[in-house]
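Predict the holo structure. Ligand: fe (ii) ion.
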Amino acid sequence: MWFPVERSIQKIYLYVTCEACVKYEWRENVNIVPLACESLGTRGMAAYVSTGDLGILIDPGVDLAPVRFRLPPHRLEIERKAQHWNRIRAYAQKARILIVTHYHHDHFHEDEFELFRDKHVLLKHPEKQINFNQKKRAKALLSRIENISREIHYVDGRHFTFGDVRITFSRAVCHGINDRSGYVVEVSIRNETTFLHTSDVTGPIRPEQLEFILKQDPEILLCDGPVSYMVGSKYDTRYLDDCMKNLITIIERTRVHKLMLEHHLLRELEWQDRIAPVFDAAKERGVILSTAAEFGGLKTDLLEARRKELHARSG
Ligand SMILES: [Fe+2]
Ligand SMILES: [Fe+2]
């Protein structure tokens, strides 16, 4: 476990002991580019990860809430979604590996099967621990990519090695608090630095979702946060408290020093106030807590959360 003081010692150690060209950043030999997500104005958790000469695209999909505040997507959201598809297509070209963590349409789309041409494809199992709709979509995707992809593997609970890079998948864990929305796999990518993408854990809320994160002990974490905008309707406050407890456990018990919270949490403007104790814990431990947009050096631009205002403005 690295506490902030230990982290700074590590930093100094690397600065003073290594020759001129080696900096602390040397440890972070992984580059993460968020491609489509709530903080960039759409729904998704699409991210391009490059480490060494290996490019990995996780969850090549983007979508919009069909209805929010009883309103359809605003023109700006529709335009942003088109831009994000273009980003995903461009980065898919660079990637050698494509990963699909589950079969919701904000994480992949069977009509975008060309993305998978000549790729190593790592898929959540299309038949085991999956609900009816996702099984149907998985089957549609597979029928379109089995003859054009380089190879296809079902990944639940497995690990793969590409050169120095080890990709580890959790076993199928619930999509959120229970299995009503099906299952997902979490992904850990390790090459000196460990990066972890939680997929749709909505919290994390369940012990097995948390357990994988603690065990992988990532330095950089892209985490699907709690569904705070439904607390008071679909979820009770205990759910939010439990999610915060788990996020604080991650901050306290892993080496994480860059924590991106995304997706379900960023569907309301007040998301930061909702999880204030998590921000306090991050500050105390010297962990940088941000959205994926901010991590990528961009401004957070929550379009869905502002849908009412956007429609009101355009009359
Ligand atoms: Fe999902
Ligand atoms: Fe999702």
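The pocket of fe (ii) ion (ligand 2) is lined by residues 104, 106-107, 200, 263 (CB under 6 Å). The first strand starts at residue 31 and ends at 37.
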